[in-house]
């Protein structure tokens, strides 16, 4: 029997991934049902291997035979492919704030600083396998005494991040980032790394508390209460096994038509050329190789094959990703 995949959406994630919450919350707030394919928090990830996806980061979202990498790209695709979003920014100012929050919390400082707040004596930081896994991907995790030594500086930086929210967008006592009476994409973009550290035992010192940042802490509790209510009112996802997704992919449809390769793109690539796509900040040795199908200012799409030969597409954003031409025969072309 074909597996049930609501809206043809599969979210590959694990519940400790703060980046995955950006997508999980979005789907919940919009009431878009999906199938959840839970992944281990370290490599190997056999479900992704079976899909022939090299990218090592979480979350990944598939809609039919289209696979979307990167939470930023996934959010923008969900906004387009599921129109009528009540979470979207409505004014140019809100659109700018959303974009800047996205850059600030992901690429910019907040996630990196939040990660430094993971206590040296937490299970993850005492697990050599976890540290090796992340360092293999290109991180430089400090553990033990070195981690303790850098903590005061990390606290100063984290306090600065809390201060920015407390004394700018939340300073007038509003309930939500874009005002109004319900959370929006602005709240998702702003909250996720803060919610992560707030929920992490022993991560925050007294200097960062409901006493020192009352508006940030009550905003986070309000948001959590909304999510809790949605979850208790309806079932939002079904669980699915990786092997069932591969089977479903064999006969699935594409979620969107393909666009062309922009002839004026600075990279000068052509449709059908063999390329590799990969993130530039971390996990860069995990490259997905395929034929270039689409290249716009916002995304690159390549075609790949399942082991059976069935074709599917992988979409990556332009921001933070590199697209490298591959010489016929397999070696990287010098560009
Ligand atoms: N730019 C990516 C970052 C994703 C990311 O770094 N995710 C973390 C999990 S929260 C990760 O992949 N960690 C390493 C791993 O699981 O291999 C995005 O926005 O989705």
From TrEMBL:
Xref: Pfam families: DUF7962, GST_N_3
GO cellular component entries: cytoplasm
Domain of life: Eukaryota
Full protein name: Glutathione S-transferase
Gene3D superfamilies per the UniProt record, alphabetical: 3.40.30.110
Residue ranges constituting the GST N-terminal domain according to the UniProt record: 11-85
InterPro entries in alphabetical order: DUF7962 (IPR058268), Glutathione-S-Trfase_C_sf (IPR036282), Glutathione_S-Trfase_N (IPR004045), GST_Omega/HSP26 (IPR050983), Thioredoxin-like_sf (IPR036249)
CDD domains assigned to the protein according to its UniProt record, in alphabetical order: GST_N_family
Ranges of residues in domain DUF7962: 114-230
């Amino acid at each position: 029997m074909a597996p049930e995949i609501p809206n043809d959406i599969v979210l590959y994630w694990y519940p400790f991934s703060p980046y995955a919450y950006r997508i999980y919350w979005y789907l919940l707030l919009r009431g878009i049902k999906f199938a959840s394919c839970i992944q281990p928090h370290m490599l190997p990830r056999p479900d992704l291997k079976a899909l022939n996806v090299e990218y090592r980061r979480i979350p990944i979202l598939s809609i039919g035979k289209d696979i979307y990498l990167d939470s930023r790209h996934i959010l923008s695709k969900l906004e387009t492919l599921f129109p009528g979003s009540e979470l979207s920014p409505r004014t140019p100012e809100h659109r700018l704030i959303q974009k800047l929050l996205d850059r600030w919390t992901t690429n910019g400082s907040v996630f990196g600083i939040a990660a430094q707040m993971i206590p040296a004596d937490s299970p993850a930081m005492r697990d050599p396998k976890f540290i090796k896994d992340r360092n293999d991907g290109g991180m430089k995790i400090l553990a033990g005494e070195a981690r303790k030594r850098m903590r005061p500086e990390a606290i100063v930086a984290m306090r600065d991040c809390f201060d920015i929210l407390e004394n700018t967008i939340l300073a007038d006592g509003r309930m939500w980032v874009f005002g109004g009476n319900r959370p929006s994409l602005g709240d998702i973009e702003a909250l996720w790394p803060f919610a992560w550290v707030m929920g992490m035992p022993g991560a925050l010192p007294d200097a960062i508390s409901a006493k020192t940042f009352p508006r940030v802490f009550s905003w986070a509790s309000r948001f959590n209460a909304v999510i809790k209510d949605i979850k208790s009112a309806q079932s939002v996802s079904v669980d699915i096994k990786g092997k069932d997704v591969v089977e479903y992919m064999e006969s699935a449809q594409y979620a969107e038509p393909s666009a062309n390769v922009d002839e004026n793109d600075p990279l000068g690539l052509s449709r059908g050329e063999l390329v590799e796509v990969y993130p530039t900040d971390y996990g860069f040795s995990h490259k997905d190789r395929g034929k270039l199908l689409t290249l716009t200012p916002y995304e690159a799409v390549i075609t790949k094959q399942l082991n059976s030969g069935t074709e599917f597409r992988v979409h990556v954003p332009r921001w933070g990703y590199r697209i490298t031409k591959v010489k016929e025969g397999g070696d990287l072309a010098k560009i």
